[in-house]
Amino acid sequence: MKNRRRITPVILISILLALFAIHITQYKFSWKHVKPLDGYYINAKKNKFTWKDWFAGSYQEAKDKYLNDHFGFRSYCVRINHQLRFSLFNKVKTAWVTVGKENYLYEINYIKAYYGTDFIGQDSIEKRMNKFKMLQDTLKKLGKTAIIVLAPGKAAFFPEFIPDEFHTEKGITNIEVYRHYIEKYNINCIDFHKYFIGNKDNSIYPLYPQYGIHWSIYGSCIVADSIVKFIEKNNNIKIPQISWEKINISKPIYRDRDIADAMNLLFSPRTFDMAYPELKFESDSGKTKPSLLVIADSYYGTVFELGLDDVFKKHHWWYYNKEIYPESYTKWLTINDINYHEEMLTYDVIIILSTDANLPNLGWGFIEDHYNKFFPK
Fold first, then answer.
1. Is the pTM here over 0.70, yes or no?
2. Between the N and C ends of the chain, which has fewer C-beta atoms within 10 Å?
3. Which value, in Å, is the radius of gyration of the alpha carbons in the chain?
4. Among residues of the chain, what percentage have pLDDT more than 70?
């Protein structure tokens, strides 16, 4: 019995030392490839030793951050921690994300938009829509088309899974007031918010994923096709059409599981299958290929990445009216790097697309900036 009591601490210490050695050798030699964490984050950089920093205490603090970000098997340990929080306590570490009923994931801003707790007031919305109307009419005289596209938030699409702690009395919402003034001022608009929710039970394939925040890739194909048809009808032109005959069914990939990826779990959560159309593009022979500029939030990313070069002669996405794509995929380019107003005028069609959560700042300054250019006084 005494021998067993003596052996047990030795075994535990040996295990701890072995684990410590594994971490140290992995940190030093990276002998085992470990999948990096998903999402955007900046690891601390290795700091240089100086006596000044040493006595100020900043060297030790920076060194501690560096070692915390680079110790052996860190990403694996983080995934274990996140998996335990999610599986045992239904909690996530991802910023602004909450777990709803049946494990449906939401960003909190979309819940606020659904209940109207982010309402910015009728006067603010009317003023912005009045400016957009004047901008739309001015661009029309220049032979250009301006369109507002309303996208549905996940909370508006799946209100039944919103966690109980977020339930509150529903007030006036931004999208309701925007719709009112869009109709009042006869503004060009595609309302996917209304369309997606109205076809929630009629769609053959899922329009929204369980573990993603955006509309599904299948849904984005519908969006792309509808935008093309709207421009075609509004401008009385023939544009190369988008179609698909084959649809592949598989477990969610890419943006259909973007929040799940950002959660950095050890195991992929189980969910329903999603649909992935194989797109075909009509020949541009005898067709008109307009140039398209889209000022939008991340919801347009899924549409943009479908590859619509066979439909539009020039196609750019100004992400939150700041980053310019596709250029920023390889080298960061912003609207500050171009002739902002003059570049906008080179496009035939200008779209502002926003989900309901971003309606408080619709256009992200684009409407006001170009309105002031046309109407400086």
1. yes
2. C
3. 26
4. 74
